[in-house]
Amino acid sequence: MFFRTPRFIRRWIRRRMHPMAEEKALSKKQKLSYLYIFFAWNAFAAVIYQLSKGNKYWSVTHGLVTKEEMEMELKRPAYAWAKTLGIQKAEVYRVGNPLKGVTQLQDINLEETEEGINMITEEKSAEPQP
Fold first, then answer.
1. Which superkingdom (predicted)?
2. Domain map of the chain by residue range?
């Protein structure tokens, strides 16, 4: 057993619980598994329903993030990480095919304004490294 139950918890459970018949235990286990199946199926159906309505990104549909911000984060994941980590100046190396090596170097500057955070990029071409 990976995690050993503390002795006082084991004693407390032993005092308050009594052994039950095997048939009754199997019956309870089966009822709990049906309950689990019911909730899992409903959660799956809710996800499928949201996807069919076009609500793939819940943060956009509930107004937590603007559509432009979400598009920017999907196109450039480095922007999202720099924003999350609070890095104002970041150098981004884009790596493509392993045979090509590093294909592009990009500097990202994040500027906070009243409207939000703006991203200024300066693209430079880098020489492929072996």
1. Eukaryota
2. 21-56, 65-125
